[in-house]
Each structure stands twice: as C-alpha cells, then as structure tokens.
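G., before I forget:
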Amino acid sequence: MELVYKLIDKNGLVFAFLVVGIIMYLSFLISEKLFRKKIPGVALAVFVGLLLALLGSKKGIADIPLFSGMALLGGSMLRDFSVVATAMGADLSKIKQAGWAGIVGLFSGVFFSFFVGVLLAFLLGYRDIESLTTIGAGACTYIVGPITGAAVGAGSDVIAISIAIGVVKTIVATIGTPLIAKTIGLDNPHSALVFGGLIGTTSGVTAGLAATDPKLVPYGAFTATFYTGLGCLLCPSVFYFALKAFLLKI
Amino acid sequence: MKIYGVALLAFCFLFGKLLGNYLGVLIGLKSDVGGVGFAMLLLMISYTYFKKKGVVKELTTQGILFWSSMYLPIIVAMAATQNVNAAVSQGPIAVVIGIIVTLCGFFLVPLISKIGQSKNQK
C-alpha cells in the first residue's frame, strides 16, 4: 500500500486526470439514468467537485496529500490555458457586435456588486467605512475583497468574510447559472458577454456557462477576465471615497 | 503537427498575460488585468490569419482543440480545490450577501443585453 501512495504522490497530476475522469463518467451516468439529462452532467460533476472540496480546507481536496495533483490540474495556469483555447471556437464579429453591451455590463457589474454588498453589510450592522468597502469589494470577487481590504486597512476578520462572500458568489454562479439561464435569456453569445461582465468571477462564470452551454464559455470568459482588475481598480479608490463622502453626509 | 497548435496557443497565452500584466502596472495594480482576454483575442486573430494563409493543417487545429476540450475536467478539478469550507464556516453573513449579490447580477443580464441588441437592430 505504501508503494501505491508513493507512486501517486510522485505522479499527482496523472492521478488527478484519473480522478476527474471518474467523477465526469459517474456524473454523466447519473445525469442520464437518474435525471434523464434534466440536470446536465457537467453541472453535476462540478457540484460533486464542490462537495469533495469540503473534505479539505484552504485548497479543498488538494489539502489531502493523495489528491494534491488536483491543485495543479484545477489551478489558474491550466485553467487559463484551456479557457484561451476555447477562443478558437468563438466568433470575433460577435464580440465586436456586443462590445458596448459587454463594457456596460462590466462597469455595472462591478458597480452593482459593490453597492449591493455595501447596502447588505450596512443592514447587517456594519457601520465603519473600511469594513463596508471591503465587504462590498468581496461581493465583486474573492480577489477584489482582500486586495481592497488590505488597501483601506480593514480587519482580518472582515477580510475573511469578504473572501467567503466571493467564494459563495462563485458557487452560486456555478450551480445557479444552468438553472436560471432560460429565464434570463442566457442562450446566445451576446448575453453571455454581458453575463460574464456582470457576474465577473472567472471561475463561476466559466463553470456556470460550461454547465449551461459550453459554446458560450469563451464569450463569458472574455469579459469576466477584465472584471477583477476593474474591481481592484475602482473599489479601494473611487468607490471608497464616494462611500466616505456619502456616509459623512448622513 | 499537433504541437504547432499547442505552441501557438502557448504563445498567445503568454503574450496576452504579458499585456495584461503591463496594463496592470500601467494603472497601478500589481495584478493581471484582462490577460486572458488579450490572449483570446490574439488566438482568434492569429488563427484566422494563419488559416487564410493556408499554413494551418488539420493536426495543428487538433492541438488547440484538445486543450479546449480539457476545459470541462479542469473546471471540475478547480471546483474540488476551492475553499468551500471557508465560505460555509464564515456563517450566514457571507452566504446571504453572496447569494443576493449573485442573484442581482443574474437579473441584470436581460436588462443590459437589451441595451446592446436594440442598438444593433437600428
């Protein structure tokens, strides 16, 4: 048995291929036989992934030494590499066509996430500007939250909450997108571009779209990739000062 | 050869990320701003260009297609390596805000998609 552990430890990435392959196979099987494809196999597989993540802590299942290869397979390097590869199937003219809507979506996405986050934090009892700003930033993505929190000097507990909000957002986008796609008209490249800009968490947007319709992934990913940068730019500066000016007036 | 496709993809990826990092420095952030987006644009443009010139062979395309199809399993692995415990353990505050904010985003999609589409119809 020890020999097996050693072997897997040395070949973590290869083992991760096997593990994910098995998860995908079982998920597609269950989706077909049990749910008659009403719940897409991909959505099910991603959900199983999230459940497995509960077994570990910071790096999910990769915290268990046996599964450490999952961190490499699911890390940002390979993720971004494969996301870029999906662009080959994307239509440049459609991106051009939806350009303005995408930009409007991007700015309103950051704007609404931040201020809805601030409003909710306010209702839940937070009053100091630093905490409000950090929580609002966390409502953008789990990267914008801690960067903003560090910039404005928020407490580490609030920063932890802001990261948690971002992760919850990613999970909700992953599970919720395929369920709500029809209702919000998310079935064409145009709305996928807007969607990517509005939700912004690259992982949530791409996983959610993949479960909805893999053809839409490149469009959503395209705008989502600008979101975190825009959030890091606006939250600790313009939004922070705007919030400060607004709260001082009350 | 398939590796030509993978190499083209790798070039676009690295060059796009480089542009993203430069843009980040330019606006005073230490992070990558839109690197993946630039890389995607590069790939779309260069692939169409090479295809027009007739240098792209079937196998080259397959090299890129392979990575594009690896996308789903990578997403599953990514889901399995998220800090889901942190999201759950921070209590209801994080969950409530996270859910409401995402739902707001969902329902803005039809609204903002409309703006762009009505413009195109004119």
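Chain B is about 85% helix and 0% strand. The mean pLDDT of chain B is 82.

More on Monday.
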